[in-house]
Specification:
7-stranded mixed sheet; 19 helices; 22 strands; alpha/beta; about 575 residues; Nucleotidyltransferase, domain 5
């Protein structure tokens, strides 16, 4: 039974994250979040074996199963409606956002290739998650050739195309499994694939096309350029990628009968064009004006902001006209690992006595380490770290880079290293902000969204390191709220995203203020971070790249030996 006002209208935002999908029911008039539900992906992130097989994956692979995404629609959406007490007939629109660049190889009717029996054991038939970094070699060639040829689009991406993005991942498929590449009719962002399932029609969203698909000024890289990368890649754009592009906030179509059955919503309601989790969060935080940088801090961090002017910022992930809201240039940068790094440390580097002490205190290990680290003076641990455990997205755009600790002694404790990692991610963000400021795109406000804003030590460290007040989104479901805002626009409840953001978005301004003495102390540590950053990231030593190559050779040798041993054990026929 409905518990809501019959005169109100509602929308649903569905946020597809790295490990789960979340649906939120939102009131159109004021953005109030009335109910939510989460559905974890049954297969989570696949990094070791192709599901149901003994086929091992090499280092730096990260795959997913697309049917997990459909399960979110059939589980989280109905549960969120029940939680909200909203009658489905009062819902006027639905919108989704996704991690990017997360890519699905499909047939002409949208069937993922991993669902075809003949390809179920082939790694390249699965979704390549955003953090699939195994196409770094292809990315290097893309960048080198573009620089040699003076390709004008390269500057729009800070001079470097990432291994996470559409072209590098597609080129990897072509060169490692040409049969999969040949069978693939469309190379589709998951953000667009899920909208395809909802509406029955394929519309490519302007956000991922511009940021991840090298679509600038109405064109993709030329066929001549692609042929120079690999002759068989010449037709990639026309054969696999190019498609109708929908603008953000517009309707991609209406909810089809099959999706209505999954979700329990009425067929025919508006479904918004797909979008990216970070970019939809800016309207949710009502932070869409020039100078307002929004950092969506979770497993990774994505930094987005608007500007009235176009400038080239070193290492940015793209500058796209209308990439966040219509009429402004949307900029993106990011860090490939943040919460993931903290999670890795807790899962792999903390003695059991800490877990036992945390349990005795009735808290989690993260919270326990944070409490211990909070009592330290800045620099007391004697450490500085590099936050590259998942590579570097901005400003170096190099996923062959890896993490570093400097200053460890026999007296170093887990809480020391934990705090150093918190600080390292803040230093990484400061590096990004300084690149924007120096390039004529000044950052005047820093707005935080995502799960990590719940850590007060981390937030204060960021305020002190970047020397800016921190505003925080007044929502636990920033991306889902942002998607709901886009759903309201697509359904015609507001004329555009900016007006919808003003009515439905939420933010608390200046919650964390920089402390002058802390700022001075962190300036000294940041100088050491920058020394390490440039030595390992820009210098000619190349040690991290060589270690990656040694790792790959060792893994390949082990896989070859395992195959030979298996063949020797097979009985003769």
């Amino acid at each position: 039974m409905s518990r809501t006002d019959p005169d109100e209208q509602y929308v649903i935002g569905v946020d597809y994250g790295t490990l789960s999908g979340r649906a939120v029911v939102v009131r159109v008039s004021d953005g109030a979040e009335l109910g939510s539900a989460v559905h974890p992906y049954p297969h989570a992130v696949i990094t070791d074996h192709v599901p149901g097989t003994d086929v091992r994956l090499p280092p730096d692979w990260a795959l997913q199963v697309p049917r997990d995404y459909v399960e979110v629609l059939s589980n989280a959406v109905p549960a969120a409606l029940v939680d909200a007490g909203v009658n489905p007939v009062d819902v006027i629109g639905l919108a989704t956002d996704f991690t990017a660049c997360t890519m699905v190889p499909v047939t002409g009717n949208g069937t993922p290739l991993n669902e075809l029996p003949e390809f179920a054991e082939r790694p390249h038939s699965y979704v390549k998650l955003w953090r699939h970094h195994a196409a770094q070699g292809q990315a290097v060639r893309i960048n080198t050739l573009a620089e040699e040829r003076g390709e004008t689009w390269l500057g729009r991406y800070g001079g470097l195309i990432s291994s996470e993005w559409e072209f590098a991942k597609a080129l990897q498929i072509l060169e490692e499994d040409p049969e999969i590449y040949e069978v693939m009719d469309h190379w589709v962002e998951a953000a667009d694939w899920i909208v395809w399932q909802l509406t029955g029609s394929y519309v490519r969203n302007a956000c991922t096309a511009g940021y991840k698909g090298i679509y600038q000024d109405g064109a993709y890289p030329s066929e001549d350029y692609l042929a120079a990368l690999n002759p068989a890649f010449a037709g990639f754009v026309s054969d696999k990628l190019e498609h109708t592009i929908g603008q953000l906030g517009s309707a991609a179509g209406t909810l089809c009968d099959q999706a209505a059955e999954w979700t329990g919503l009425p067929a025919g309601i508006a479904v918004a064009v797909g979008n990216v989790d970070a970019h939809v969060t800016a309207p949710a935080a009502n932070a869409v004006e020039p100078g307002q940088m929004v950092a969506i801090m979770g497993t990774s961090t994505c930094h987005v902001m608007n500007s009235g002017e176009l400038h080239e910022v070193p290492g940015m992930c793209g500058a796209v006209q209308g990439g966040i809201v219509e009429g402004l240039w949307g900029y993106e940068a990011g860090q490939s690992g943040v919460g993931d790094i903290f999670g890795w440390f807790v899962n792999n580097c903390v003695p059991s006595r800490y877990s036992e002490a945390a349990a005795a205190a009735g808290t989690g290990v993260h919270e326990y380490l944070t409490a211990l680290a909070s009592s330290q003076a800045i620099g007391e641990h004697g450490l500085v770290a590099l936050d590259w455990h998942s590579g570097n997205r901005s400003v170096l755009v190099d996923h062959e880079l890896s993490g570093v600790f400097v200053g460890q002694t026999l007296a170093t404790r887990p809480e020391d290293m934990y705090r150093a990692l918190l600080e390292a991610t803040a230093f990484g963000t400061r590096t990004i902000i300084e690149a924007f400021n120096a390039s004529g795109v000044p950052v005047t406000e820093f707005v935080v969204a995502g799960g990590l804003l719940k850590n007060p030590l981390l937030m204060q460290v960021y305020a002190d390191v970047i020397n800016l007040p921190l505003s925080v989104i007044d929502s636990d479901q920033g991306p889902a709220l942002g998607s709901a805002i886009h759903a309201a626009v697509a359904a015609g409840a507001y004329p555009d995203v900016r007006s919808a953001a003003a009515a439905m978005g939420r933010v608390r301004r200046g919650v964390y203020q920089p402390v002058p003495e802390n700022v001075a102390a962190y300036n000294a540590l940041y100088e050491e971070y920058r020394t390490l950053h440039d030595y390992f990231g820009r210098g000619a030593n190349g040690v991290m790249h060589r270690l990656k190559q040694i790792q790959r050779m060792a893994a390949a040798g082990r896989a070859s030996a395992a195959t030979e041993n298996t063949e020797e054990m097979e009985p003769a026929l």
